[in-house]
Amino acid sequence: MRARRKYGETGFGAVFALLLALTFFLGACASPPAPGPNVTRVVLVWLKNPESRPDRARVTNAAHSLRMIPGVMKVEVVRSIPSLAPGSDQSFDLGVIITFREHGALRRYEKDPRHLETMRRYLRPTVRRYEVFNLSSR
């Protein structure tokens, strides 16, 4: 009669540890993608009802939803932007800062149906005026 091994004695733990170590090793060897010239879009927003918390929340949520569009790396909603050019109108209610992977991502974003739907459905009803600035890291 053959003796049965207990589960812990079969070597599964050793195999799992080896696979885990191999995964970390290969991950460390992979070179990260070369950074491209990021593009940052700054949108200054003047709300129709600046004191309306629901309108601010609507614009903030709509802006953050744009993160799902390919090529968008980061979206921030801020109340002030200290590095605006001298003479810029700083009376805006919210600033939306969107960082794109590269110029092509910005071009695709501008035509993306999700971006256009967000503008139509959420921003146009609550925004009185907006200004857009595109800044490149090059």
Structure report:
The chain has 138 residues and is an alpha+beta fold. The chain is 37% helix and 24% strand. It has 4 helices and 4 strands; from the N terminus they run H-E-H-E-E-H-H-E. The chain has a 4-stranded antiparallel sheet with strand order 2-3-1-4. Helix 2 runs antiparallel to helix 4. The radius of gyration is 24 Å and the shape is globular. About 9% of the residues have low confidence.
Q: How would you describe the shape? A: globular
The portion of residues forming beta strands comes to 15-25%
The whole-number mean of residue pLDDT values reads 80
Helical stretch tally = 4
Largest sheet: 4 strands, antiparallel
Low-pLDDT sequence parts: 15-22, 28-32
End-to-end CA span: 75 Å
Order of helices and strands: HEHEEHHE
Q: Could you tell me the radius of gyration in angstroms?
A: 24 Å
Class computed from helices, strands and strand pairing: alpha+beta
Strand line-up of the largest beta sheet: 2-3-1-4
**How much helical structure, as a percent, in the residues?**
25-40%
Please provide the count of β strands: 4
